[in-house]
TrEMBL record:
The gene is radA. This is DNA repair protein RadA. GO terms for molecular function: ATP binding; ATP-dependent DNA damage sensor activity; damaged DNA binding; hydrolase activity; zinc ion binding. It comes from Hyphomicrobium denitrificans 1NES1. SMART domains: AAA. InterPro entries: AAA+_ATPase, DNA_repair_RadA, P-loop_NTPase, RecA_ATP-bd, Ribosomal_Su5_D2-typ_SF, Ribsml_uS5_D2-typ_fold_subgr, Rubredoxin_2. Keywords: ATP-binding, DNA damage, DNA repair, DNA-binding, Hydrolase, Metal-binding, Nucleotide-binding, Stress response, Zinc, Zinc-finger. GO terms for cellular component: cytosol. ATP binds at residues 97-104. Residues 354-458 are annotated as: Lon-protease-like. The keyword Nucleotide-binding applies. GO terms for biological process: recombinational repair.
Length: 458
């Protein structure tokens, strides 16, 4: 007689299990995330529970030649850049982002491009009807592409469809949270269902040599919903960033087994879909006001690409007991540290002022080299003195006020020179190949030097 299925309580935030329900997960500390699920175990006769004797595996050494993984182009150069030069057959790619930011649009463009080149693309939509996908394809001018389309959420039906004909070159699942396996007694989107669906699809992609693109929902914090193990299972994790109110979109790689894990691609949302931006620096600097104080151009590096972006600061008298500090696109803790350094080392106090800092264009910066540009913008805002319109800034500021060297300084300067900038404020330390650059280099050893050169303090 078969044993009754055992009930477990699974945390929908971290995937931890508990024998009984509790208001708070003991593993991650989240509240009201434990959901009852049935652990049915493997089906009878599947052989999973039988222990095999195993075989001896031949061990290899580290010496030997490794061939470069074959790739195929997506037809979108920015996406090829983010994935490391194209999509590898048999790889699994997870794409996350806010609703309506353009995930489905981008994947439909990729599927249509591959189909037009003679490849076989299959698009499974779990959230939209076939008519809705066809309407989007018509708006994008992709209706003539021979893309296999289905609206299905049953995992068994999807696997049966994939195995019915020759293996496809590309499989798109939109989205992984809508799939459900009939062998599990749990609702779609729960930890067990998402994990089981991802495992089955990735196993098929590896065996058939088909590239798998999965769309993932995100939580209110911007992280991909479901257990973190999904991100470990796939080969590449991409995040769409940007404000839906702005036309710019940033596709960032946070994990990539076949290329750099810190590369970005820049897109612009237009009527015909997502249009790649060949020169992002011109895009982010196109609408800046050169006369207003509190604006500094930061010469940054995103992956292997130099990128110029404007950092804007506003300092206003505060009527509150505790002045406000608001940051968009930068780390709020880093702003607090920089304000303390300016106060202690440069003698510029922001105690009675509200401070607002913004990275223009919706870009998120995590590079420490942005410290010098942020400090210049803050000094300009508090003194009311505009910075030179043809100057760029980069360098990391330490707690002592010293400016430390940044990586790839020559590449930053070349990008600034190409866009017509004539002056650069950079760390005193670090080697720079200034040959052929039409830039006046101002080496900054300490933050006091920046205060005197860029925006003199009162």
């Amino acid at each position: 007689m078969a044993k009754p299925a055992k009930s477990l309580y699974v945390c929908q935030a971290c995937g931890a299990t508990a024998a009984r329900w509790a208001g708070k997960c003991g593993a991650c500390g989240e509240w009201n995330t434990l959901v009852e699920e049935t652990d049915a175990g493997p089906p009878p006769g599947s052989g999973i529970t039988r222990q095999s004797k195993g075989r001896i595996i031949k061990l290899e050494t580290l010496i030997g030649s490794a061939e470069e993984a074959p790739r195929f182009s997506t037809g979108i150069m920015e996406l090829d850049r983010v994935t490391g030069g194209g999509v590898v057959p048999g790889s699994a790619i997870l794409i996350g982002g806010e609703p309506g930011i353009g995930k489905s649009t981008l994947l439909l463009q990729v599927a249509a491009h591959l189909a037009r080149r003679g490849g076989r693309s299959i698009y499974f939509s779990g959230e939209e009807a076939i008519a809705q996908v066809r309407l989007r394809a018509g708006r994008l001018g992709l209706a003539d592409a021979q893309v296999g389309l289905a609206s299905e959420t049953n995992l068994a039906n999807i696997l049966a469809t994939l195995g019915d004909d020759r293996p496809p070159d590309l499989v798109i699942i939109d989205s992984i949270q809508t799939l459900w396996a009939d062998t599990l007694d749990a609702a779609p989107g729960t930890v067990s269902q998402v994990r089981a669906a991802a495992l089955a699809l990735i196993r098929y992609a590896k065996m058939a040599g088909a590239a798998l693109l999965l769309v993932g929902h995100v939580t209110k914090d911007g992280q991909i919903a479901g257990p973190k193990v999904i991100e470990h299972m796939v080969d590449t994790v991409l995040y769409f960033e940007g404000d839906r109110g702005l036309p710019y979109r940033i596709l960032r790689a946070v994990k990539n087994r076949f290329g750099p894990s810190d590369e970005i691609g820049v897109f612009e949302m237009v009527t015909g879909g997502l249009k790649e931006v060949a020169n992002p620096s011109e895009l982010f600097l196109g609408d800046r006001d050169n006369q207003s104080p509190g604006a500094a151009v930061f010469a940054g590096i995103e992956g292997t690409r130099p990128l110029l972006v404007e950092i804007q600061a506003l300092v206003a008298p505060s009527g509150l007991g505790t002045p406000r500090r608001a940051v968009v696109g930068w780390d709020s803790n880093r702003l607090a540290m920089l304000l303390a350094v300016l106060d202690a080392r440069c003698g510029v106090s922001f105690a009675g002022h509200d401070v607002y800092l913004n990275v223009a264009g919706g870009l998120k910066i995590a590079e420490p080299a942005a410290d010098l540009a942020a400090a210049a913008a803050l000094l300009s805002a508090v003194t009311g003195v505009s910075l030179p319109r043809d100057a760029v800034y980069f360098g990391e500021v330490s707690l002592s006020g010293a400016v430390r060297a940044a990586a790839m300084m020559t590449a930053r300067l070349k990008e600034a020179s190409k866009l017509g900038f004539l002056q650069a404020f950079l760390p005193e330390s670090g080697d720079v190949d200034s040959g052929g650059l039409k830039l006046s280099l101002s080496r900054i050893a300490h933050l006091k030097s920046l205060a005197a050169a860029a925006a003199p303090c009162n």
